[in-house]
Amino acid sequence: MDHKAKIDEDIAVAVYRFPTPQPEADGTFEWDWTNAVVVRVGAGGQFGLGWTYSSPATAEVISTHLAGVLSSRSPLDTADCWAAMHRACRNIGTKGVAAHALSAVDIALWDLKARLLEVPLAQLFGRVRTEVPVYGSGGFVSLDDRGLAEQVNLWHAAGCRAMKIKIGEDHGSRVACDLARVDRLRELAGADVQLMVDANGGYLPGQARRVGAELDERGVVWFEEPVTSDDRVGLATVRDAVRCDVAAGEYAYDVYDAAALLDAVDCLQLDATRCGGYTGFLRGAAVAASRGLDVSGHCAPALSAPVAAAIPNLRHVEWFVDHVRLEPLLVQGVPEVKNGALQIREDEAGHGMSISANAADYRIK
């Protein structure tokens, strides 16, 4: 490769919208589509691809605030590029949509770097495993019994040995329904599957402790966001009161957010499309390791696979039904899941994915 190659001025951004099969809901939010904001960065005749699941406004942040500071920088200097983008967002705020934008570009830059060096991305990171364990995730509160059974069948077919559903329905006001759905999941999943739940911050701390006691009786091993992740004292209170692991971190945008959660969770979640891309994921995992904690990849399984393969303290990655459905529509080269694990691709440089020809049908910007 040309070690003097510089990042091209023309950084392409596009927005795609993928409708859900039906309206979906967790305990505190409802949706019927998912946006993917995609960025393509070039240098030395190669291109890197990254994306985030976010507002279309993210594309404007990339075009207006990030693209200009990358022009003429070396695509090999990913840390320098990350720092420059972070500085560029100072006056608009470095969290939220700005963090989503930075994450998408950082992922594209790492993909570009690996392609220029002609190595698989997991190898560039320093692989510690050739497959990444996943758990089945979905189980929306809006699903009827048939819909839940269909998702469980999908997870069984993929070999998932852990499965997660949503609880906290209607902001935690329907606890009896929540627990009945956990019981139904056990019936559908079978005795050998680990049960996980996600309340999406739907409960108050006292209520979450009481629900947690019921979950412990049912053998649930994972209680995600029992209270809002903004309430770190509440998270710690629940964690100290239950046997199941308390998890949070999907809204951690940087290492400071990650570090602030370490005294409140048993497992730290990191989302590569939000936490600062692959650079942020690696840093967050190191922060967790300094306290003896595992990390779990939140959503975006295809993008998470290469970096997750390089994390010694990784527990698993979320095989989220919405993203499992849309990723093959957006890109080709999605890693395969066998026996409950993402298979790390070693046959192509970078992460091995490129925009699908079918994606044009979903482009809105």
Give a verbal description of the structure:
By secondary structure, this protein is of the alpha/beta class. Helix content is 39%, strand content 23%. It has 13 helices and 15 strands. The strands form three sheets. The chain has an eight-stranded parallel barrel with strand order 4-5-6-7-8-9-10-11, surrounded by six helices. A three-stranded antiparallel beta sheet has the order 1-2-3. The longest helix is centred in the N-terminal third of the chain and has 21 residues, at 97-117. The radius of gyration is 20 Å and the shape is globular. It starts with 11 loop residues before the first strand and ends in a 10-residue tail after the last strand. The relative contact order is 0.15. The mean pLDDT is 97.
Features:
alpha/beta; globular; eight-stranded parallel beta barrel; 365 residues; 23% strand
Gyration radius over CA: 20 Å
Specify the number of helices: 13
Largest sheet, described in full? Answer: 8 strands, parallel, barrel
Oligomer: single chain
Strand coverage percent: 15-25%
**Spatial arrangement of strands, main beta sheet:** 4-5-6-7-8-9-10-11
Could you give the order of the helices and strands?
A: EEEHHHHEHEHHEHEHEHEHEHEHEEEE
Structural class: alpha/beta
Let me know the average pLDDT. 97
How much helix, percentage-wise, in residues? 25-40%
Low-confidence stretches: none
Shape: globular
Distance between the termini: 33 Å
**How many E-type strands?**
15
